[in-house]
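Hi V.,

You were right to ask for the full record rather than a summary. Here it is.
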Amino acid sequence: MRTPFTFMVGLLVWWFVGGTTVQAIGWTPGWTKHPATGGRVVSAAECAQARELGDGIETLETARAAIRAWETIAAAQPDDPEAWIELASLHLLEGAAFRHRAKDRLKCYIAGLQACERAMATNPDFLKRIRQGQTVWDATPALGAREMGAMHFWATGVFYIFRDCLGLFGRIVNVRLMERAKTMLERMDAVDPQWEESTSTFSWGIYYLAMPSSRGGDMVRARECFDRAVALGEHRTLPRWGRGKYFYVAVRETTAARADLSAVAGRALDELGGNRSWNRYFQAEALRLLAE
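Predicted structure:
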C-alpha cells in the first residue's frame, strides 16, 4: 500500500512538477456565463465549415479559428448541447497542445469546463436541480446520453488541470476536484459504459493512477483499466497514448511505454475514430516523446 510520502513522490513523477498554482481552483459556472437565447438559424454549410475547421487544427491559430466558429454557432443555438461540447473539446485541445504556461492552460481548461456545464444546462432536469442549489456533481443523476460528451470532457478538463496547472501542494489542496470527476465517470458508466469504445475505462485508469490509496487510488486497478481501454479502443489513439505516456512511465516500464507510443505514431489518421485533430495531437506528442 502506498504511504502519503510515496503518494507525494508519485505525484512529482507522474504529474511533472511544472505546475505553479496552489490555491483552490474555482470558476464561474458555465450556465451563468454563456448566452441563454439565440438570435438566428445556423445553416448546414456553417456547421460543416466549423467541423472542417475543427478537424484541421495543427497550430494555435487554427485552433482559435475553430473555437471562434463554434462560439458563433453556440451563441446562435444555445440550446444545442453538441455545439457546447465541440467548444469544450476545442478549448481543452488548445490548452493541451498549443499553450505552454500553466496560467494559459488553466484559462483554456476552465473555458472547457464552462462549455461542458453549459451543455449540461440544456437538460431541463439538470438545470432545475442546479437552480434548486445542487452542485454540478450532485446533479449528475439528471444527465443522460445526450450529455455523455459533456461529462467526458468535464472529467478530462479536471485531469488536465491537475497535470498541467498545479504544483504538488496545489494538487493536495484540490484533490476533491478529482473526486468530483469520479462522479462524472460513475454517471457515464451508468448511462452508457460502451460510449466511444469505452472511453470512460481509460479515464478510470487516470483516476486510479492519480489518487492516493487512502482516497481510492489503486495501481493494480489502474493497470487493469488502461489495458482494458487499449483492448476495447481498437480505433482510438487515446488509450495506448495515455498508457504509454502516463502509466508505464509511472511504473518505469520504459520498453512498454515506447511500444505504445510507437504504435500510436504509426497509425493512419483515416483509420482512426474520434476527433481528427486530437488524434493528430496524440501522434505528434508520441513522436516528441520517442525522440527524447
